[in-house]
Amino acid sequence: MSMEEDAEVHTKTGKKSNVLPLWGNERTMNMNNLILTNIQASHYFKMNLYELKTYHEVVDEIYYKVSHLEPWEKGSRKTAGQTGMCGGVRGVGAGGIVSTAYCLLYKLFTLKLTRKQLNGLLTHPDSPFIRGLGFMYIRYTQPPADLWDWYDEFLEDEEELDVKAGGGQVMTIGNMLRHFLTKLEWFSTLFPRIPVPIQQKLERQLSDRFPAPPPGAAAHAAVQRAPERRRDFEEYPEERVPPPPPPRVRRSPSHGRDSPAHKRSRTSPPPNRSVRHKERRSRSRSRDRERERHGDRGRNRDRSSRNGHSRHHKSSKDDHSRHRSHSSRDYASELLKERERQRRERDGSRSPPPSHR
Q1: Which regions are flagged for Basic residues bias (predicted)?
Q2: What's the number of domains the chain is made of?
Q3: Region of residue 275 (left: phi > 0; alpha: psi -120 to 50; beta: else)
């Protein structure tokens, strides 16, 4: 093969040619199987997106329909109670309603974008979500060794977009691209893995591009900004921020607004700590004396009750003994009377009857 033919092949299939290489699985776009299955089965992809045949029609659809970059719509995926490989991070648990953004991302994949079309997505001026889907297309389909070349000039891009379904997570384009280069997780799914040597090289390049601030740099910057802030306040006094209100003192429920403690705290300064300690000791001593007094009173009451009980027990015992002795005397007298009567009857029966002359 001559040098001219080699150069022609390189311009057609090389890195800078208009034909983009595809890395990984050319059928699934390296997406999670659950997400891909939901995309292919969704009514929106089969009916609405099937009618879009050109690149510009898909870009217009992104402009009108995409409002976040999550793979699932808000509240449509139930991942409560799932752990391990079936958890929310892996994206292999219960499915949900796949998002419009991911349906359109896969639609771009079916169009087999050229390099020129992909660059048009990255620099599109109408919507940050068009640019976001272009960067996600690169993360899913391009070789890991080419990611830095694609993302390099956009790492400090300050355009903002809300990537969370339902809103609440705004980030810049630059921060999103740094996340793509350093993290595998993207909400409830995973990006394709980057080989370890390439990942280490990307981290070194990021650390060289964005070095970590030295310790104390934030405090030093605040000290340098203090004169500028003071000068702004002197020039524009109406923009001064009022001082924050003092912290509210938490009171126990037993201390109301009409309590003496509350009035004292509002009208007089707090007492000295030593005086407060002496008052606390005097109150504790008075409570101890009152407790001892109540204890003596209770002991006297117990002693008097025990004495009364013993006297009552003794009187009842005497009455019982008197009753028992009286009853025994009555029984003896009755027994004597009965024996006397029986003796009389016997004597009367032994005497001879009178004779009749």
Answers
A1: 274-284, 306-315
A2: 2
A3: alpha
